[in-house]
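Quick one: structure for this chain?
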Amino acid sequence: MMRRSAALLIAAACAFAPLMARAEPAVTIPPPAADASAPAAGLETAVLAGGCFWGIQAVYQHVKGVTNAVSGYAGGTQKDADYRTVSSGGTGHAESVKVTFDPRQVSYGKILQVYFSVAHDPTQLNRQGPDSGTQYRSEIFPQSEAQAKTAQAYIAQLDAAHVFKRPIVTKTGTMKAAFFAAEDYHQDYATKHPYQPYIFVNDAPKVENLKTVFPELWRDKPVTVAQAEKGE
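Got it. Here's what it folds into:
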């Protein structure tokens, strides 16, 4: 995370206002033409990677219908699933977030619409904002064939509509990859440290974009991992 450390030092030394321009802007996009159907009962999970997991987690913690959002690692093996090793960029892991949601309140398609619109920039290859490396890649890890088809069709739809200036580079081919929760100090990080320079510059704007672009999905009080573990 050398890039992230450098960003922290730069942010601490400079005024916040000019740095805010570095945050990725939201892009208003249409919903998926074909959405995955909701099951009769029960919760679903989505595993998404798109840069630093702090920001992705923070966004989904404010989405109505999400019951938990956990930062972690996906794409590699259990023995390499720790922050220091993943930060080397050679483990196959991506910093990811496992989103548990009620599909009768928020569909998988809506989860993806938020992902492509405000959570990250899907046209950046192996980087997001100040962070670079394969561990920051854009990737959806489908948990079912239905999720894979929905994700692939949505990417094709968005590319055909040219809603982004560059092609989407998001990977979707890794089915049901094992997810490993990150260390405790990474959980609820943006909620616990809202004024840390990295969060203030790179992640807080994503949360504000969610509120602006998706007011119907917005929840003021974030659902945290700590709350979910207590069953609150």
